[in-house]
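Open question from group meeting: does this chain pack into something compact, or does most of it stay loose? Before anyone orders reagents, we agreed to write out a predicted structure and look at it together. Recording both the input and the output here so the notebook holds the full record.
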Amino acid sequence: MSHFTAAPSPYLVPFDGSFRIADTVTEAKDRPSKDECKDQLEEEIDRLKDLQRVLYAHDHFSVLCIFQAMDAAGKDSTIRSVFSGVNPAGFEVHSFKRPSANEIDHDFLWRSSCKLPQRGRIGVFNRSYYEEVLVVKVHPGILEGQRLPKGPSTETRFAERYASLRDHEAHLARNGVVVVKFFLNVSKEEQAKRFLSRLEEPSKNWKFAAGDMRERKYWSDYMAAYETALNETSRESAPWYAIPADSKSYMRLTVARTLRQTLESLPLEYPSVDPEEAEQFEGFRQELKAELE
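Structure tokens returned:
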């Protein structure tokens, strides 16, 4: 059961398996100017701040935002910008890199399940359990190091993982976790420009690694893996959005707007005060006023 309505976005990945990455846009046509995007983003940030306050007080739902993308698509900066106005007390970010030995000794959903946001809070996964059907799909040899039971073929193994992801997210939705997933869809050309910028500007050198270039050679394999993963797991209870990412300002605005619309679809409200306790409020008010006179 989904407790929210998927945002009415042109970038919503259909739930019927018809998504084709070749048909997507990485640069939106007729988008607002950079300055207009920034102004509109500020408005969205203010609204998200208010919605988070009600989410926290209501304490019945939590929100999990998942960000997946190729290197240099802008995950970190988007997270930093979109959530710049929220209260840190009700917000957390977790990044998932190569699994540790301890994590490999558990099922592939274990390490992220430990990081799910509590009720009333917003959680962000910067990369996520989807790495297990993305980077592992592109490099299936990784499976050999995961000490999995023998038997299923590699194809069957991934089919089972898609099923596990759908079941996991359906379970979360039934229990009040609102899962919203963003694929930041950057073009190969734009990635090249951003890599070059990291190499040419000393202050950005730390963002670049030789492995980034190695993975770039598998671009078509990654696009195929993303297309399959999004088709297999974009559902009403946990939708994917393929956000154009060649313009960072437009990407951030679109993510913020999508999240705001999602939160607005939730039945959020401030808790009501117990009637018996409320009857005492007038007396408390008079007592406090008398103290201040």
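Observations to bring back to the group:
The radius of gyration is 22 Å.
Strands lie at 62-69, 91-95, 122-126, 177-185, 240-244.
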